[in-house]
Hints:
By secondary structure, this protein is an alpha/beta fold. It has one domain (3-17, 46-209): 3-Layer(bba) Sandwich (Glucose Oxidase, domain 1). It has helices at 90-93, 109-113, 130-138, 160-167, and strands at residues 3-5, 24-29, 39-43, 51-53, 74-81, 87-88, 103-107, 127-128, 143-146, 171-174, 184-192, 200-209. Strands 4-10-9-7-5-11-12 form a 7-stranded mixed β-barrel. The longest helix has 9 residues, at 130-138. The two termini are 18 Å apart.
Amino acid sequence: xxVHDITPVLGKEAxxxxxxxxxxxxxxxxxxxxxxCDLSLLHMSAHAGAxxxxxxxxxxxxRTLDSYPADAFILPxxxxxxRHPEEIRVDELNGLETSSGMALLFxxxxxxxxxxTSRTFSPDWVYLSREAASWCVERRLALVGIDALSIxxxxxxxxxxxxxxxxxxxxxxxxxxxxxxxPGRHTLICLPLRVAGAEASPVRAVLTEYRGD
Length: 213
């Protein structure tokens, strides 16, 4: 079975969001120094690299990731290729065959440019428009993903896309790399850490062959 790893490597590829704690891995104990084992300490934001946003990230009283069953993160998924160089618009989504409860992942110019696999932060990514977010809500998707650190336009303080999706209970997967993935049907696996009260968590996101009806 083919497995496409769409997770940038933390500490090597994934950029840090300006102002968030930068990812770091510190060696606490080392076999090379005569310690009994290798042991390291990780320091990072819950939104580091490829990560899931839960409704609690923006919605008061919204669900947190620990409240979901594991199968909420294993979904039939459609990878949709987007051509517009600035934003994901409804006119490119009309005609996509989606169904309630599935994941929709947007493969944009962000992947071709390597925006999630470079340690250098770049603010000019392709984002999901508010109108396109409403389109996703109307189709009752379970999860929407994008190959950028945020699904909103950079520095949009209103966060309209986050609010629209999370307000409708739709999980958001950000920071993935879809450069080597063929558009079409897949199965998405993106299990977060099971942390109490977590509004977000890094994930190891992969796509496998579609196993639908």
